[in-house]
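EI: anyone free to look at a 506-residue chain?
SC: sure, send it
EI:
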Amino acid sequence: MSTFDAAQGRRDGNATGGADDCACDPLTAVLDRSALLRGNRCLACRVCCRFPSAGSPLAPFFSHDEISRAHAAGLAADAFPPARFGPGHSPFLVSEPEFHRCPAFRVPTNDCALYRVRPLDCRLYPLLLTYSSDGAQVLLGLDSYCPAVAETADTPAAHRLLEEAAALLEGPLLPQVVESRGIVGAWKDHLLHARPLPRLGRLLCRSDLGLARFTPTARAALEPFFNAHRGELSYHAFASVHAWSDFFDLRWKVCGDRLLLFAQGDGDAFLMTPPLGRGDPRPAAREALELLRALDPAAPSPRIQESDDATVRSLTADGWRVRESAPEYLYDRAELADLRGNRFAGKRQPCNRFEREHDWRWRPLEPEDLSAAAGLHRRWLERRLATEPDEVFRAQAEASLRAAWRSLRDADATGLVARALDADGRLAGFTAGCPLHDGRTFAVLYEIADLDIPGAAQAMFRAFCRELAPFAFINAGSDSGLQALARVKESYHPLRRPLAHVLVPG
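SC: here you go
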């Protein structure tokens, strides 16, 4: 999340912008006046635009308009995930021998190929926008990782820069920040002189309604409600909900003994899960309905998704009704680990073939694997979409890539368990999931295997089930209404098919 100083733009009008560009950008003008990035120090810096891992949360965020401008300026089409979801996305970082870089960063010249059209996130740096640790506020501060900040953070000029930038972000630049709201990240310990931005807090956190942003740093405060609910559905876990952070504005509020998890996006507002926790869910559901209508009065269908049978029994007595139900697939973990008997022969044989024909290894998926995992997932997606005309499948597959990337990036912070399967020295597949809070079930959320390696998918699923011996059951999620996916899930002989219900007001 960085770029270079205004002097660079003035030096190279063709590649990185010109004096007129800098003069009309109020953020650049404020940084210029502060002299924080004076002279040529940014061009000599070896920190900016380089990242320690492919999934760094400091990678620059681009709104959809900024992505379009970046493509028009020459950035490759595959630099970003496909399809248009949420407010935008960060690019896939490019692996170098000793670091990962923004695809717009030119290593030989240590400059930016997109300087003229660099996104707001880069124009803002070394200022950072983050949520507070509980997600209740938007904060502005300085990034202490920047060498210039480390030298000048406590000077009057630095404090004046914060004041002037805050006035811009809460004033004339407010609409741009809301449009590019992915630039507001989770709380970071290296943020200096953090100060709240109340107008942005009202718009992004919805502090005016008593809501807070759903961020990984809020996990410790929220997990007791997941634990108390003890759900067996795949979305009754922190990591499962967090996967949708790039698609929706996710927010939370505690109502009595229950946690409310709100999702808002594209003219819609709903509860991601039923009210989680102990006690009577009906008062919390009533408050949730009021808040949904306040969040988006024009939303066509306020609803509660991923409701279990117990919630349905409580809330239908209070006037809610079931609009639709979809099965999830629950398996006996020990059966999937062994694959014994004739009914599993069709799964056991490709597993054995894979293990016989390849020098394979089952291991944790590490941060340095994320570039390879993203590449494998993109190749898988291209192959699948080339032969699949179903638009629902296309949308689901593209969304899965986005959700998996976000989940893998934040795995440590959200409790996601991610594993890799290597074959002959290269990544043959990856899978990830999380424990559910009934204490007996593990939810497998993602599984992507190299389509050119027969048996890799089956071998990976068996290896994961073997590792998960403390759990009695595996929840493989829903079939998303896709018949082909339903056939695959049925072929593993589910033990039960618990229903996830959608509830709407009566």
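EI: Confidence is low (pLDDT under 50) at residues 1-23.
SC: 👍
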